[in-house]
Write a structure and sequence with these properties.
- The chain is α/β, with parallel strands linked by helices and about 400 residues long.
- It folds into 3 domains: about 220 residues, HUPs (Rossmann fold), CATH 3.40.50.620; about 80 residues, Tyrosyl-Transfer RNA Synthetase (Orthogonal Bundle), CATH 1.10.240; about 70 residues, Structural Genomics Hypothetical 15.5 Kd Protein In mrcA-pckA Intergenic Region, Chain A.
- About 45% of the residues lie in helices and about 15% in strands.
- It contains 18 helices and 13 strands.
- The strands form 3 sheets. A 6-stranded mixed beta sheet has the order 1-6-5-2-3-4, sandwiched between helices. A 5-stranded mixed beta sheet has the order 7-13-12-9-10. Strands 8-11 form a two-stranded antiparallel ribbon.
- Helix 3 links the parallel strand 2 and strand 3.
- It is globular.
Length: about 400
């Protein structure tokens, strides 16, 4: 019995260090500590540069959940101070400095959103303003004196920008040092981050060493492409799937990803066994299974991750109604309007089907706006408001007009 328990524990550690992992540094050191049963402090930091967490954030959060299930202490660090500096990772230009008001607004819902993956009752939620707010100029002198400029600017994105004669601000140079100091303040044993964070994570090891602490181990996870299948998932690219979106939106957006991304999403966002994923991939390649069917199962898994199976089934039926049966979904939001003539742009803005008139105009020009199933071709057109009229923008956004 004991042997079986040890074997199962070892399998969990193997999965922790391999599935959904790009690189582990130092892997053998971390493996030994895990096998010994050491309780580790596992850090994951996120700067509140936006208000919504999406599937790109879910990948490292799921890795944290694995550590949590094995009894380790998860530290969810919100970089409310470093957000003022701006992470230069992967940037071709300097980030805009956020105001305190913007940061506070962005981060107000982070814990609830992270709670869709983690047991937040057992998570240590911290803010790096706790220590940086109390630091003065002498601390900055001390921290920067421990590192050379050559070491800090050796990162690829800095080198590329310097080569292309694009400015790198001194503030950006400070960012990796400050993120590294977070690990000192938190006494982190392990830090999780995306592959684009590797330089910053390694800097954490160096800063810990300079301050006489043991160096944290690092686990990097792959970045996930968004619904366009090309760029990293990001709200700024409009290719994201948010963790708080409605089930039908999550389902529909997942169904819209290119077939080439199916297997990556399965491996990084679900608990479906790898042998089953490989079998599905083989069957699709052989033409024995339609990729739409495995994508539908994937969409159901993703919805279930944030909601439940019942909501996933409902979202699947709604999706089939819209796209297979060409029907209007049942739970369409109603918008009250007077029985008058109104320009189409005013209607879709009022119905919150677009964020602005400029977006509405683009959607009309692209053929993405319909009234009662008929395409609208003139963005300046006036429409007679009728009770029960259904307005559609894109493939998944609907609203039913109700006369006041």
């Amino acid at each position: 019995m004991a042997k079986n328990k040890v074997s199962l524990y070892e399998k969990k550690i193997e999965a922790l260090l391999t599935r959904g992992v790009d690189e582990a540094i130092e892997e053998e050191h971390l493996r030994k500590r895990l096998l010994k049963g050491c309780k580790l402090r596992v850090k994951f930091g996120i700067d509140p540069t936006g208000s919504e967490l999406h599937l790109g954030h879910v990948v490292p959060l799921r890795k944290l959940r694995q550590f949590q299930k094995l009894g380790h202490q998860i530290i969810f660090l919100i970089g409310d101070y470093t957000a003022k500096v701006g992470d230069p990772s992967g940037r071709s230009e300097t980030r805009k400095i956020l105001t305190d008001k913007e940061i506070k607004e962005n981060m107000k819902d982070y814990s609830r959103q992270a709670g869709k993956i983690l047991d937040m009752g057992k998570v240590e939620v911290r803010y790096n303003s706790e220590w940086f707010d109390n630091k003065g100029a002498m601390f900055l002198f001390e921290l920067t004196s421990k590192f050379t400029l050559a070491r800090v600017i050796e990162r690829d994105d800095f080198k590329k920008r310097i080569k292309d004669d694009i400015d790198v601000s001194v503030l950006e140079i400070l960012y990796p040092l400050m993120q590294g100091y977070d690990s000192v303040a938190l006494e982190a044993d392990v830090e999780i981050g995306g592959t684009d964070q590797k330089f910053n994570l390694l800097m954490g090891r160096r800063v810990q060493r300079k301050y006489g602490q043991k160096e944290q181990d690092i686990v990097t996870v792959p970045l996930i492409e968004g619904t366009d299948g090309v760029r990293k998932m990001s709200k700024s690219f409009g290719n994201y799937i948010g963790v708080t979106e409605k089930p039908k939106e999550i389902y529909g957006k997942t169904m819209s990803i290119p077939d080439s991304l199916i297997w990556k999403y399965y491996k990084l966002l679900t608990d479906v066994r790898l042998d089953r994923i490989n079998k599905m991939k083989k069957d699709v390649k052989a033409g024995d299974v339609n990729p739409r069917d495995v994508k539908a199962e994937l969409a159901s898994e993703v919805v279930t991750l944030f909601y439940n199976k019942k909501e996933a089934e409902k979202a699947g039926k709604e999706f089939d109604k819209m796209f297979r049966d060409k029907e209007v979904p049942e739970d369409v939001d109603e918008v009250k309007m007077p029985s008058v003539k109104c320009k189409i742009l005013d209607i879709i803005v009022k119905a919150k089907l677009v964020a602005s008139k400029s977006e509405g105009r683009r959607m009309v020009e692209q053929g993405g706006v319909k009234i009662d199933g008929k395409k609208v071709s003139d963005w300046d057109r006036e429409v007679k408001i009728k009770d029960g009229m259904v307005v559609q923008v894109g493939k998944r956004r609907f609203a039913r007009i109700k006369i006041k």
